Amino acid sequence: MKKYYIGLILLFTLLDSYAQEIQDNELDKLSLRYAKSSFDEFINLLSLPNDAHFPNDIKKNIQWCESAFANRGFITKKLTTGGIPLILANKNYKNAKKTVLVYLQVDGQPVDTTKWFQENPYKATLKELDAAKKWNTIPITKLEGDINPDWRIFARSASDAKGPVMMFLKAMDIINDFKQEPNYNIKVILDFEEEISSPRLPKAVIDYKEELASDMLVIFDGPRHISNQPTLTYGARGITRLSLEVFGPRAPQHSGHYGNYVPNPALKLSQLLASMMQDDGRVAIPGWYDGIEISPEIKKILREVPDDEKTIRNKLGIASIDNIAETYQESIQYPSLGILGLRSGWTGNETRTIIPSSAIAEMNIRLVKETSAQRMVDLVKQHIIKEGYHIVDSLPTEKERMEYPKIVRFNYNIAYDAFRTDFDTEIGRWLRKAMNRAFGSAPVQIRTGGGSIPISPFVNTLNIPAVIVPTVNKDNNQHSPNENIRLGNYIDGIKTVTAILTQEL
Amino acid sequence: MKKYYIGLILLFTLLDSYAQEIQDNELDKLSLRYAKSSFDEFINLLSLPNDAHFPNDIKKNIQWCESAFANRGFITKKLTTGGIPLILANKNYKNAKKTVLVYLQVDGQPVDTTKWFQENPYKATLKELDAAKKWNTIPITKLEGDINPDWRIFARSASDAKGPVMMFLKAMDIINDFKQEPNYNIKVILDFEEEISSPRLPKAVIDYKEELASDMLVIFDGPRHISNQPTLTYGARGITRLSLEVFGPRAPQHSGHYGNYVPNPALKLSQLLASMMQDDGRVAIPGWYDGIEISPEIKKILREVPDDEKTIRNKLGIASIDNIAETYQESIQYPSLGILGLRSGWTGNETRTIIPSSAIAEMNIRLVKETSAQRMVDLVKQHIIKEGYHIVDSLPTEKERMEYPKIVRFNYNIAYDAFRTDFDTEIGRWLRKAMNRAFGSAPVQIRTGGGSIPISPFVNTLNIPAVIVPTVNKDNNQHSPNENIRLGNYIDGIKTVTAILTQEL
């Protein structure tokens, strides 16, 4: 340890005078050191509620980011959108020949505080796993001492995606402190509405096409491959939200007086959902899988991903999988139709003996490059009509109630399409080189990630290739209560971004 | 009006000295007068929260009833049950040859205050319907003046069943004030757990068989026929509650990362529910309708009920009905299987893009005399097993999760069986006579009411016939938000009970 500190002192002395090449074998120590110096700032960032349903909360996140990026020498600009703005942070370098656009997401999923095992999902809580596989809180001050990489910080957005935001900022601190100058300019686009599907992003990319112009896009978001090996992801599924509500009697009715007489909307909804899918999980709607062909060559690349599917199933606690494809990676190459939530009447202690007045299903379609959002929505809609439903977009009128035996509210929101970049392009080669430098081996390469990120507007409007650099642990509970980030991944993330920022393009 | 008051003064003068025969043509005026004098006491009763999930609230209802019945000359006794007690109130008469047991229910359904159009469901609110068919609050003090029978008092249990409790108490006031003595003793059994399916009642009836011994049972509960004509009901369906929970991954999973791979429990539940029933609402489980034969003679009696099914459907806002039988009355002669509530993941603004970890369906079976509860539960259970499910009664173990692709929690609670009393028996003849006196015509006769009341334990254990005397308006929103009682029905209810109490047996 003493040697290390002497080294550091020497280093600091040198820093002020001239740029100091960062050796590959120093990346580990540097990322640990800068991680440790980041925790106060990270905890402060996590403390800001960031559910984009509450724009006043988002404002504070925006101010925080403007300040944090300005502190790193970026010039920030609000891209107004009519709602929550985007932030564009620019930093130019004198030897730059190209421009790299970096996408970061700042907002988070809503929180259901009753389901978190800590008082406040926005108060970062340090936990370690005990022998009984239970996460126990340990003092946050332990972050000041030696760090166990398996400890985790629990907080909303710890992984998705304030963790990556902080990793990027700390990597910038490293190259700034060491006076490293990339041979490309950096544009960072900060999205504060990702978890509500970035409704204003597609138009904003068109409106600010010139400001965003660049040669390639790097996205720091999402979890690494489940093996937790360094990963590059060349595409992501798109997403479209659907909301269905089947209507029953105008008001809930006594299940005794009317059971056997008044059609039950919860049953009708169940039947409608069941009609959309087979027992084995395959979508039963005709045309759903049209246009997707996975060649033997691609299957080979997909099989190279070191998935231990038995371990995946054990982690998830499931005995079987949907019958979509031979491997997990292949299953993600197809569009999925999923039920996110069901609600009708009351349940548990609140149960009432009634026939509900309506039954709601929230759904999503995860799109792939071959399946455009509108076509898939139309397929679902046609199926619902074929099942005998009259479709409305809000409440049915009294006339409609008396005319149609089957009425469903059908709303949809096309968030964004999928994107996919070929493996063998400039951006892929560049990132693979950086990852090789940082970790001494090739990263796991994912053809299409299952999760959706609002990248297709950039890819399509700016006509640039995009690759995702995921860093966080797969089991981070993102989108669920008790989201967390593993400290080892946080430190590795800083290393990853530093390697990329110091990689010649 | 002057004449009327002079008459009243004369009446009161006479009352103290000797019993005064109540003429049939005075019943209307008396019931109106006693209704008006009852409102303070009724509003006070309604102000007591009475959800039996909260025993401390129920205590206040018990105290209120003990006091109210003691004030009417009853001797009350707590029948301890190990939980919330029953109250038995006895009043004997010197010329009594028989004993009539009266069943009254005091507890109410839970309240979801967010769905009530008044601040507090326990604060009685007087409303009148405007031309736009909207219920507008009017000052409660209007009850002191002329009463419009179409006004309604909105409060939890206004109809189900504190209204009938108050009707009975006021009818007792009338016969007490007029020194009328029935030729039968009265035993009143007060149930404070009806809406949670009277879990302790069947055993209590056995334990207190001698205390409860009587010749017949009259139940003041439930709504009149939808035509709002005076009604007698000779039976009621029984009820059994089912709770199903289909399990998915151990924790909710990101719908992008795992959609197409992790089986969705909301889909599985939908498929399971859909498998139980046909598209036309008929139960698809083999054996469900076995043993029920509706003869042409019975069909004729059922058709005599003046149901205007077009009006029923209009009131409920439904374009079609389940395909169980030719008429509403006939549909109730069969057991029903109904979904009361569904819940999985999150919905509406809280929606998260996840694969839920489980999906819950709350259900009930409404039983008829021919279908015992246990047999019907077993039919459902066998069906679920046939659908490939492993059944658990609480959470699955880790081993079960990894072994069985389909796991469902299946719990059931047999509340009580159905009962049905033949039309042509002593109790039926006696009640029909009283109704004829009160209303000048024969009541509508219902073979089996759709709703369930915990009467089968009395019928089976005490071996006595039972008939229900419903009084409240059908459209009272019982079991739902905005429960109410129509004042015309409240006044008629006092008249009905008074006619019965003054009818020789």
Radius of gyration of chain A: 25 Å
What oligomerization state is this entry in? homodimer
Strand content of chain A: 15-25%
CATH topology tier name of the largest domain in chain A: Aminopeptidase
Mean pLDDT score of chain A = 94
Integer tally of domains of chain A: 2
Number of helices of chain A: 17
Q: Tell me, what is the CATH class of the largest domain in chain A? A: Alpha Beta
Structural class of chain A: alpha/beta
Keywords (chains A, B): Hydrolase, Metal-binding, Protease
Domain Peptidase M20 dimerisation (chains A, B): 235-388
InterPro entries (chains A, B): Cyt/Met_Dipeptidase, Peptidase_M20, Peptidase_M20_dimer
Organism (chains A, B): Aquimarina celericrescens
Main attributes of the structure:
505 residues; alpha/beta; Aminopeptidase; Alpha-Beta Plaits; 21 strands; 33% helix; M20/M25/M40 family metallo-hydrolase (chains A, B); Peptidase_M20 (chains A, B); metal-binding (chains A, B)
Description:
2 copies of one chain form a homodimer. Chain A has 2 domains: 2-113 and 156-236 and 418-501, Zn peptidases (Aminopeptidase); 238-292 and 334-415, 2-Layer Sandwich (Alpha-Beta Plaits). Helices cover 33% and strands 21% of the residues of chain A. Chain A has helices at 2-15, 27-36, 39-46, 55-71, 162-177, 201-207, 209-212, 255-258, 265-276, 296-304, 309-316, 328-331, 373-386, 398-403, 426-439, 456-461, 487-501; strands spanning 75-79, 86-91, 98-105, 125-129, 135-137, 152-154, 184-191, 216-219, 231-233, 235-236, 238-247, 253-254, 336-345, 354-355, 358-367, 390-392, 407-416, 419-420, 444-446, 466-468, 484-486. In chain A, helix 5 (162-177) crosses helix 17 (487-501). Strand 13 of chain A pairs antiparallel with strand 13 (336-345) of chain B. Chains A, B: Keywords: Hydrolase, Metal-binding, Protease. Chains A, B: Residues 235-388 form the Peptidase M20 dimerisation domain. Chains A, B: This is M20/M25/M40 family metallo-hydrolase.
